Structure formats: structure tokens, C-alpha cells
Amino acid sequence: MSELDQEKLREFCAGRECLTINDAEPRHEVTLVGEITSLRIVPRAGSPSLEATISDGSGALVAVWTGRRRIAGVAPGRRLMIAGRGAPIGYRGRLLFYNPRYELL
Question: What pTM did the predictor assign?
Fold first, then answer.
């Protein structure tokens, strides 16, 4: 994502009453806004999971919907609001949300 695109995304997300992904604390209930940068289907123990990487220009998180291959309207480039509790995983404690509540914007 180019620096100009990140700046436009930060401006869009700042217009909402939400935290930035960078400011979100693990294991706390948060509402975040961002854009889906990538989407993939991951097989887990015989049941697929839909994984979306979401960025708001300040950072990125991963949202996982278990038992789903697709969700109508959830696609790369789409903006959405998600809510839930994130768990820190991987590099620099990136947040992972399992089955977050979401609203397409």
C-alpha cells in the first residue's frame, strides 16, 4: 500500500469514533475501522476459516471467521468496522480477532 493510500485511509478512519489499530489493547473490547488488504481461506482441522487482513493506515490486524469460506460483501478493498477482543499473535503482537462482529461501510 502506497504512503498516499495509507494517509487517505488514516483520514477515513479518523472520521469515525473508533480507536486506531495501533492503539488497540489486546484482550480489551474494541471497535476498529479499516480496509481489507487481503483475504484467504485456511483449512483448520477439517473446517475452513476465512482470514482477512485489515489495515487502517496505522497498523494491521487479522480477523478470522471460523467455518466460513466466504461472507457476502467481505472482499479486498472493502472497508468495514469490526468489534471484539483481539489476542496478540506473531510479529510485534499483531491482533487476531476470532469471529468479530462486523459492519460493512
Answer: 0.82
DSSP 105: -
φ, ψ dihedrals at 24, nearest 5°: -70, 135
In order along its 105 residues, the chain shows pLDDT tens digits of 566 666 777 777 666 677 888 888 899 999 898 889 999 998 877 789 999 999 888 888 999 999 888 999 999 999 899 999 999 887 677 899 999 999 998
Whether 31 contacts 19, CB under 8 Å: yes
Q: Which domains does the chain have, with CATH numbers?
A: 3-104 (2.40.50.140)
